[in-house]
Specification:
This protein has a single domain, classed as Four Helix Bundle (Hemerythrin (Met), subunit A). Helices cover 75% and strands 0% of the residues. It contains nine helices and no strands. α3 runs parallel beside α8 and α4 crosses α6. The longest helix has 47 residues. Required for the export of heme to the periplasm for the biogenesis of c-type cytochromes. Belongs to the CcmC/CycZ/HelC family. Keywords: Cell inner membrane, Cell membrane, Cytochrome c-type biogenesis, Membrane, Transmembrane, Transmembrane helix, Transport.
């Protein structure tokens, strides 16, 4: 017997209810993302002050830092979806995880690319095998591995189960990414926003960074919801097509032939 689903999760287990709820939410979410990014990106890229040490290269961090947060937070969400799939057999958790992994991989890729572009003028090299950089690279491979694994099986259930197990094992890398700058003597600087005491950034740079982070988070959520909605509708269409094909393949028995 499958474990009982929690009531809150069970409410959204119905695909029709999920489509109706997200259909109302998605336009507002997408509109809010566009509005916040329309404010945050010009503020960060053109109006915020240059850093006294980094100069204009600090503007890369307005994209790099939110992408790093999304790569880690998104993977934590992937692990939670994997728990919902393995423990409660939530029917939408597999679809949401499947559609989340390419978006998370993109965020992690942008994090690595912008960090490399920033590192060249600041560190004098595109890449170093620093503990933080290496653990983020491992996170990127975990995102790609999940995206490939869930699509590698003919039976979607087998791919979803294998991907869920990989996601839970890969979640062990998240503390390494977070605390690597504290555990080891790394080239990467420690946290300057989410730390005890006052942030290490001037408010002229902190506020546009937070606005950009909010905008990218809203866009990330809207993209994942849109992909999940499309996957749900695709599955429903396939189910209808399969049912129609079965009806066509089933021979019709006339009353006369039945009597004979």
């Amino acid at each position: 017997m499958a474990p009982a689903r929690p009531p809150v999760l069970h409410r959204f287990a119905n695909p029709g209810r999920f489509l109706r709820a997200t259909g109302r939410l998605l336009p507002w979410l997408g509109g809010a993302a566009i509005l916040v990014l329309a404010i945050g990106l010009p503020w960060a890229l053109f109006l915020s002050p240059p850093d006294w040490q980094q100069g204009e290269t600090v503007r890369l961090l307005y994209i790099h830092v939110p992408m790093a947060w999304l790569a880690m937070g998104g993977y934590a969400g992937l692990a939670l979806l994997s728990v919902a799939s393995l423990v409660w057999r939530h029917p939408l958790a597999d679809l949401a995880a499947r559609e989340l992994s390419p978006v998370g991989a993109l965020a992690c890729f942008l994090c690595l690319v912008t960090g490399s572009l920033w590192g060249k003028p600041m560190w004098g090299t595109w890449w170093v095998w620093d503990a933080r950089l290496t653990s983020v690279l491992v996170l990127f491979f975990l995102w790609l591995g999940h995206a490939a694994l869930v699509r590698a099986f003919d039976a979607p259930e087998r791919g979803a189960r294998a991907g869920a197990i990989l996601a839970l094992l890969g979640a062990l890398n998240l503390p390494v990414v977070k605390f690597s700058v504290d555990w080891w003597n790394t080239l990467h600087q420690p946290a300057s926003v989410a730390r005890l005491g006052a942030p290490g950034l001037h408010v002229g740079m902190l506020y546009p960074l937070l606005v950009c982070a909010l905008g990218f988070t809203l866009a990330f959520a809207a993209l994942v919801l849109a992909r999940t909605r499309a996957a749900v509708m695709e599955r429903r269409i396939r189910a209808l097509q399969l049912a129609a094909a079965r009806r066509l393949d089933r021979p019709e028995v006339s009353p006369g032939s039945a009597a004979a």
